[in-house]
Specification:
The structure is a single chain. The protein contains 9 helices and no strands. The N and C termini lie far apart (about 55 Å). About 40% of the residues are buried. It is globular and about 50 Å long. By secondary structure, it is mainly α.
Length: about 170
């Protein structure tokens, strides 16, 4: 049992590592890490499987396969929805928005707005990205900033700037 738990933890850690490698521009290293995950025995409980699917999405997106990335996220959404893993579901949707893949998931129903503050900010970010609402994105960015999620705040502010610029208000975008 302890060995099985270590393999589950190894898959989760490796998935996080692969995602970080992609974000650092090391897609080749991320591909090796994802390949290593495939060697772990993960049948049964599959506690961290959505994290692995999300790492695959980040890698596919980095390699220019947006449809493949959306497919991995679709699988993760279905997996977490079926299992009732609402916190992880919010994480998956948030990554879909961060990767600008919501358009490829337009046919997938969203999830109910969570009550927990951080999860609620993620939900608001996804919904604001869906509608490309610059003011809502700026409000979400401020919400992320207030709870100390500074990377997510910066990403939301950047999305707000892009949305406002596309709407023709370059002064507000700045």
């Amino acid at each position: 049992a302890a060995r099985y738990e270590r393999l589950l933890s190894a898959a989760w850690c490796a998935a996080g590592l692969a995602q970080a490698q992609v974000q650092l521009g090391a897609a080749d290293e991320a591909a090796e890490t994802v390949e290593r995950i495939d060697g772990y025995h993960r049948k049964g409980f599959r506690q961290y499987e959505a994290t692995v699917m999300t790492a695959r999405a980040w890698l596919a997106n980095a390699l220019g396969d947006r449809a493949g990335a959306a497919s991995h996220l679709r699988d993760a959404i279905e997996f977490t929805t079926t299992r009732g893993e609402t916190t992880v579901l919010g994480w998956v949707w948030h990554d879909a928005a961060r990767l600008d893949l919501l358009g490829l998931l337009a046919d997938v129903p969203s999830w109910p707005r969570p009550t927990q503050e951080f999860s609620a900010r993620r939900w608001e970010f996804v919904e604001a990205r869906r509608t490309n609402d610059g003011a809502a994105l700026a409000a979400v960015a401020e919400g992320f900033e207030q709870i100390g999620a500074l990377l997510y705040a910066a990403e939301a502010f950047a999305s707000a700037s892009t949305a406002v610029r596309r709407a023709g208000d370059s002064r507000e975008a700045t």
